[in-house]
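User: Quick sanity check before I run a bigger batch. Here is a single chain. Can you write out its predicted 3D structure?
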Amino acid sequence: MTDTLTVSVLGTGIMGAAMARNIAGAGHTVRAWNRSRAKAEPLAAVGAHVAGTPAEAVEGADVVLTILYDGATALDVMRQAAPALRAGTAWAQSTTAGLESVTELAAFAREHGLVFYDAPVLGTRQPAEDGALLVLAAGPGQGREAVTPVFDAVGARTVWTGEDGAAGTATRLKLVANSWVLAATNAAGETLALARALGVDPQHFFDAIAGGPLDMGYLRVKSAMILDGRLSPPQFAVTTAAKDARLIVEAGERNGVRLDVAAAGARRLARAAEQGHGDEDMAAAYFASFEKTPPA
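Assistant: Done. Predicted structure follows.
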């Protein structure tokens, strides 16, 4: 394996575009594709080859990185890429997918002789742009030299959870972590909504918890986005968060765990999307507390 890799990035949305730029910035050759080509075109400025099809994007790739909407989309795109995939190519699957989807994706990898790495990432737009994501990865130790430079380019560190990507241990950890992130996001929104309804100055709440165990940076960041009206461009969109929430609830149901908070959070995010906030930051779930848009 040479120091310079050819990396195919399939999916150049909020996360994928930033990851592709950092991979190119690390000196690797990037071949990028997105269903909406306009989202991939800016990557040409950092030297990426913008491909017209998934098959064109994976030609000659040492590593294929998928960072798409969900598992079904990732599988569909990889099927389109199949004619140009080379046996032995490493596939870093970073789409947040359900456990059932991981099984299907791993089966596709086996069928085409790909080395499968279950590799979701933790982080939003800014960490992605900064190359400071947390990569959660599972896959064979032999061959990691192909994916490690890619993970190093997009992340601050990598947490390895196992040697079998098909077992979905990295995805399982991602769902657990996301359950906390989404619960905290929804709680922040509800707290501010209640403060508004009761005529409480939000700053008095922040002063009350300041420096104590109930205070946390994430609460303050998401609250500031709501209070300052800085919900676009999103760090992580409502529609994507709603999808992840559904995956979390499904994972709980299939494993005999009732996740009441996650289920309520999923409905809350879906309601915010229905109200027209789907493309805003997931903090916009705040608006689901109101039948009508609250006054400024």
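Residues 169-198 form the longest helix (30 residues).

User: Great, the batch can go ahead then.
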